[in-house]
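Note to self: keep these together.
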Amino acid sequence: MLLAGKVAVIFGGSGAIGCAVAQVMAREGAHVFLGARSQQNLDQAASRIRASGGSADTFIIDVLDEQSTAEQVMHLVQNTGGIDVVVNATGFMHDQGKQIDALSLAEFMRGIIPFLTAQFTISKAVSPHMGGERAGTIITVVAPAASMAIQGHLGHIVGCAGIEAFIKALASELGPQNIRVLGVRSHAIVDAVQAGSYTGEIFAAKAQSMGLTVEQWLGGAAQSTMLKRLPTLAQIAEVTTFLASNHASAMTATVINVTGGATVS
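Structure:
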């Protein structure tokens, strides 16, 4: 098993991506802790993991609250003795589609502030409880916009670029503590909407503006990639789990491209 005996904390653990990652990490032997804002959704995610023979616990958290996040992580560590793997799979509603003449400052910042706030609060809360002889890995799942030039995506593009820059900067700080910091850059995930992802609302608005269904819009996005297909939740989860394992122990300060060739940097 890739993560036998590891403690893996998944922020956004009840969402489509977080739940998929948690299921694979649990399959690979990790004891997963799922954090999110809704206990009902967390219970459903944890139940699926336990039904498959995995080990899962849950905790309520608001990653936009620095003090609360630190307190919740401290409470978790008191029960686990430390953390081996952290996955940031959080997501926040933001604008995709408005160009600058129709975009307000508040709408622009919605693509930036919550995403970078989550990066900071999670990293600050978990890093004191990782590393040393107990090597640690922090992984963030990020959209591909930082490497794209797309009209009507100003806040989203800047936010994604900020996340990728944060990953590299934090890796430099935490490397001496034996903590690796990585990103998984994913294109639109073909089965995420069916799994209940909040991106369904974003994709629906984009598709409607083009006179398409969400399925048709996803099909068009797939055709824009080199492989002519979009990643799946399972593929993102498997890549993330591999990155958290000892097989990837020489990797840090990088963002792994899982976009099907939609981006090349």
